[in-house]
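are you around this afternoon, could really use another pair of eyes. what follows is a protein written twice so to speak, once as letters and once as structure tokens for the fold. i want to understand how the tokens follow from the sequence so walk me through it. anything you notice is useful, everything is just below.
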Amino acid sequence: MALACRSGGANRSACPDSPSSSRLPVPDDSGLKDSRRAGANVEPVRIATWNVNSVKQRVPRLLPWLDQRQPDVVCLQETKLADDALTELLGRELAARGYAMAVHGEPRWNGVAILSRAGLDEVATGLPGGPGFPHQEARALSAVCGGIRVHSVYVPNGRVPGSEHYHYKLDWLAALREAVAARQEAAVVCGDMNIAPADADVFDPDAYVGQTHVTAPEREALARLLDLGLHDVVRERWPAERIFTYWDYRAGMFHQDLGMRIDLVLATPTVAERVRAAWVDRQARKGTGPSDHAPVIVDLDEAPDGDIGPVVPPPSAPSARRGTVTLPQSR
């Protein structure tokens, strides 16, 4: 899988080979904290992550959304395009908006990208030593943007608990943990984790019995990633609120607000302490031709729209009574 890097304006991008490591230290970003206290030039940054579920299908939604929300760094998942095709599709439009782009994709499936107008350096593709199915898939990409190592990840779905796809998912999460731990720097891990961290992150835990995304091994794998010192910044900012980022296209799940929170932004401590707003852009899930995921937006140092959230606009549907709704795939 090739890496395509594009830069606009003064931004630069490099494409070194992904480093490997066998050790699992806890990321230490205290050096950045010291430099900020010493008066280093750290600009406010708006970071967003969005599983677009085919960037080709989502162009009519993506470009106006960029113009409206003005994110500085965007992590995309499920781009479903080879690198050259994605660059041809979006390169000029993004360059005109001041974005550099790093891509790691494959035709039809998977694919991740990072768009940045806060710098795009030290680009790394894949997970060093990570598992494949059977080959390594285009599911992980990282780059330094505005002094932060930004990871765009698309965790395998897992399909059925106990299946080979499920074990591949757990192995992939272990490789992600190793890759994050190996880098001693300020970082955010953004993307579709395909795991709801807790029962509060699904509309009804009873509906998901026997399904992936909520099993104890998956949640334990995510917890081990968080144990590196990462903060789930949306949930920490809104600890008791109903927050979903994904709604099945079928059975009117979005309009009934029958969803899951599986798209996360996980930040190292000195990034987490800079958060001024963290919210789900539910507006982007509405209307014609949406993705089945909504973007998650995190503002560092300044919040242009104020400390809004947790879901914008909030759903009007009441919470479902437990045990009354069956998932579409279970019907």
